[in-house]
Structure formats: C-alpha cells, structure tokens
Amino acid sequence: MSDPLKPYDGIVELDNVLPPWWLGIFYVTIVFAMVYVLGYHLFKVFNLQDAEYKAETIALEKSIASTAQKNQIQSTVAAAAQTVDLEAGKLIYSKNCTSCHGPAGEGGIGPSFNDSTWIHGGDLASIQKIIREGVLAKGMLAWGNLLRPKEIEDVSHYVKSLEGK
Fold first, then answer.
1. How far is the C-alpha of 26 from the C-alpha of 30, rounded, in Å?
2. H/E run at residue 104
3. C-alpha distances in Å from residue 115, one per residue of 97, 98, 107
4. Could you give the CA distance from residue 33 to residue 116 in angstroms, rounded to a whole number?
5. pLDDT tens readout for residues 127-162
6. pTM of the predicted structure, to 2 decimals
7. Among the four residues 85, 99, 113, 144, which has the most C-beta atoms within 10 Å?
8. What's the CA gap between 43 and 37, in Å, rounded?
9. SS3 category, 97
10. Which of 163, 155, 107 is nearest to 130 (CA)?
C-alpha cells in the first residue's frame, strides 16, 4: 500500500499556517482597499487628483487676482502721490543738479536725461543708486549723506520723468 502523504512524484502538500505578520499585512491591505474605494469612488469623501488639481488651480488664480488687485491699488496710490513727489524732486534737482545736468536735464558737464540712453541704467533703482553712491570716476558726487532717502526717491522720480522731453 502507498502512503497518502507521499505521492508518486515525491512532492508532499502540507497545510501550514501562514505567519501572523503576513496575515496582518494581507488584512491591512484589504481594509485599505475598502476605505479607498468607498472614500474616493463611491461616497466621494476624498478628492481624486484631478479634483485636487482643479481646486488648487482655482485657489492660485484667486491669489494671483488678489495680488494683481493689490498691486493696482498700490500703483494708483503711488501715481497719486507722485505729483507731490515730482514737485519736491524738481525743487531738489534745481538746487543740486542743474549746474551739471542743466535746468531741463539737457546735459552739459553731466549726461543728458532727455534721451533714452542711460550710462548706468535708466530704471528707478539704478537712478537712486547713482544719486546715493555717486560715480566718483566721472565726477558725480555721492548724495547719500546729504539727502534723506525720501528726497533721493523724489529727485530720482523727477529725473526719470525728464526722459524723452
């Protein structure tokens, strides 16, 4: 007679118990799958990727719009205040700068402000830096110790307004 546990090919089938750690991972995976399907697809408690993307895009667009609105308000306030600044800047310019740059910014000893060619940069930050630090190699004094920051800002706005005149 042959033994039922020993088949003819020598392979024995044993009904062993699976290790507890493996069973734990298996059951956790089943629970996770159920929560995922129920939460994301059936009851829609959680957002899928495309819905999250759309929500973030809308929030970003609102943020950009509010930032643009704030910038527009600030530029409007700055434009309203600039008329006062230009008058103060013109006064400072006529007192300190006309001897080298001319009364209308036409140049002379110093460069002209009436054209679009700027030696050291024509944006406001560059103009303020030149006024503050000067260009000693070209004979431009540093006015940073003589003028207050507000006065430097006023005169730089006035100098920039002379461009193209």
1. 6
2. none
3. 17, 17, 10
4. 68
5. 888 888 888 888 888 888 888 888 888 888 888 888
6. 0.50
7. 113
8. 9
9. coil
10. 155
